[in-house]
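hiii so my PI (J.) wants the whole complex modelled not just the main chain, which honestly fair. so below is everything: two entries, each one labled with what it is. i double checked the lines twice but i was tired so who knows lol
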Amino acid sequence: MRKITDSWKIELVLLVRNFWTWIFLLLALVSVGLQFNSRLQLFDPGGALISTAFIIQGGIFVSMILGLSLVQRESVTSSNEMFYVLPNGYSSKIVGKCLALLTAIIVFIILSVMILYFLFWKFGVPYLFYWKSFIYLSLYWGTSFWISGIIGMIIGSYVKSRIAYPLLVFIWIFIGPLNSPVIKNFMAIFNTDLTPIGNFINLGQTDPYTPYDPVYGLPMEIHRWLQKGIWVISVTFIFLTITVLKSYRKPVFTVLILSGLLILNLPLVLLFNKEEQVIRTGYEANAVRNYDRNYYTQNTKPSFENSDSFIIESYEIDLKSFRNVTAQVKIKGKPIRTTEKLIFTLYHQLRIKSVTDENNVELSFKQVGDQILVSFPVPLKSNEHTTIVFNYEGISSPYFYANDQAVMLPAYFPWLPISGSYQAMKAEGSELIRYPLYPRNPTKYILRYSGPEPLFTNLQKKNTSVWTGQVPNGISLVAGMMTETRVGQTKVCYPVSLYKMIDTTPLYLKKVQNIAKNVNTDLNIQKSFDVSRIFFLSVPDESNLIPSNIWNLEDHLIIGINQMYNEGDLLNYDITIVPAILSSLVKNHNMINQREEIKSLFIASYAYWYGLKHNSSIENERPILVRMLDYYQNTKLNKEASVTKEILKLIDNNKTNQLFLQAFFRDWLGRLDQNHQLNWNDILELEEAAKSGDTKVTEHF
Amino acid sequence: MEILKLRNISKNYGNFPALQNVSLEIVSGMFGLLGPNGAGKTTLMRILTTLIPATTGKISFRNIDWGKPQEVRQMIGYLPQKFSLYKHIKVREALNHIAVLKGLQSNREKLVDSVIEKVNLTGQKDKRIGQLSGGMIRRVGIAQAILGEPPIIIVDEPTAGLDPEERIRFRKMLRQLGKESIVIISTHIVEDIEATCDQAAILHKGKLLAHGDLNSLSEIAKGKIWDMSVPLDEYYCISEKWNVISSHRISDMYRLRILSDTPPNGANPTVPSLEDGYLYLMECAS
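here's the output for the full assembly
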């Protein structure tokens, strides 16, 4: 032991006395500090860490060079043979070098953490980030630098010439975040998906360009720890084998070490291969930006014809969110009519394992895509109370995740089986539309949950793991980098990283309540806009044309945000509030069939009129309707452009005629709320009818 | 008397035989390994220091077999030909570190100071290695080799790169060491062996040509070495006809030493030196 500690000490003394150590350390810390600072100035503490992907790439290289120079130090000073001839000299020196490498990494991380903590303190970042960032740096910096250092040592043990350097550069390109653009080229050449390999060998984050997700937090799923674990064990054991072989020349030791490698790695490999939801933000097929869009582009229609024949009265849910989702959901309800088959909708990656009745008798079922067809041995009578138990497991959507790190399952996403046959989403152009897929009637819920804590939901908490309640439009669950506060009478659940945004929430709440009231009055919408419970969630945008970041679920609102909301006052950006509120008020079952561009035109037109009426347009800011017109004109979508132009003209010409425009928009909304899918000609006809005074006013929702 | 025994040591690098059936018995004192480049000296030294294993054969000392390198390393002090240490470390720190690696527990600091004194580096003990001259570094090398008083000290090319003054000092030091341990030096400089060793072995192309005390090795060339003086203008003519192994200019004459089975005209037989024996063996071998 003394030999090892003395070797360690000597290596440290050598590092400390080396001029270049201080130069490198200084440069590294300055660049780290500047990088942290640049993101924290934008009030993006998560981004401060995630944006260090390229620092990790640099750190990997420096660690490899450090490893190489540590192991070749004796060769350079012509003392390697002398140390080798000392009893246990070589092995003691090698262990000392490994400890020195580890010390250097730890010191660097501690200094970086100190800089980070100072900046966190300066920018008022919440305390949760202090701890999370330390874990993040341990995972992505600590283990990565260790692995790279050991790789440098392995190369240095065998390659004594200068070829070691190009070899290290070659390896370096592939084991860091830089590998994704390189691998993309290989994929193009070989026409094969190499992303799983690329991700596995990448010691940094999988996508260096990804913005920080305020709900999901820093990507630190178990999968990533296992990946690093396999790497750490593998390179350490390989290096150990080399050392023992060189030092003791006993093949039996090598066999023992390699057996140890297998024994330690085998469970990790098995665990690694177990199903887990890992949020991929790159270009791979299962990445957030690709998976659902590809799936719903190819799967546009439900597998079974819709038959809303079952009214769900209650859910009893046992939900476990660990590496994937496992759930047992007991549904009580009654059929509307006598039937022997019921259809439910459930997101397709949540695979049904069994369906049983209340007596635990297996029911036959068929799960195809997002639908489940359950067959009963005896027909269910109309209004007969029925219990169905679904057992399922799987990976949720990359947009609406649930794993060991975070949960974001909004009420409108079918993570619970709901009655009817629907697609969970609809891909339309580059947009991915979500439907209001929740029970349409007040439903009782009992939720027993185990997973990331704390959990926030629109149910009442009964004890540490049970929530209950009756809610009008489904339940939303969220856990992750979240916290809760009260703003007046409103309970607000928001990401910890949006610590600045929360200060602007009181004004926002006041605004939305006022605007929602005006919209309801203008359009005669009966749907309530309850702000007693709000979830600020990083749900993805649904439309490229209009702001649609609000989901009104009557007992709670889900407001889509991203980390940029923490900088400035994006929440109170007036131009987006009216369309967002209107889009939330018109998201209902009947409008599912309407085309998004027609709905968007309606929302943008109303928002335009609202801006004129309330004089709330922003100077130098073009209204959304005008921007839509520009877009259609620029993309030569002539029909769309001409209709939009006509609507714009109609509003401009009648802007003082409040009753006329009110009737016009109510008529339009009434037509949207029908099963008939409107097209551009229908809108033109509507406009013509309005001009000729032939509008129908209906009551909606 | 303790004997280091080498029995039929061979070493092959692939199909190339670097050493072939070398058997030696080395007793306490100074022992020289002599041979031209490629003779197998370095290979033999590396085998003796456990840096590489022999392909076949057996080496033993004090009932310890070279198949157990960790035990052998307890008995060996080694100074490689190219030796230095970390230039940012002070002499005393470096030697103390090596003493720890050698497992010296008690009186370590005293031992370190005593070897520093032995190699005459007391004035430099707090200097960094990078500040020392080549000769001083060589002395640090000897200091580390003798730390812990190992019974076998192996020194590869001991005087390579040293200036004449340092070389003389270094040889003296080695001579001292030979009183207490087996000191094996490997060199192609015959003078090093003559100045320091009691016994020597001559290697050529991996084969042991001869071994024994220096006199017996010199005697191998007895009756083959001739001495003659020639005018300057005859030197080139003579050197083309005979194997001149050394020449010294004395005023307007050359005094030549010639290796030959038959005496050249006007030459007198002379007492052969180790170099003569060595050169004679080399000529015979090739």
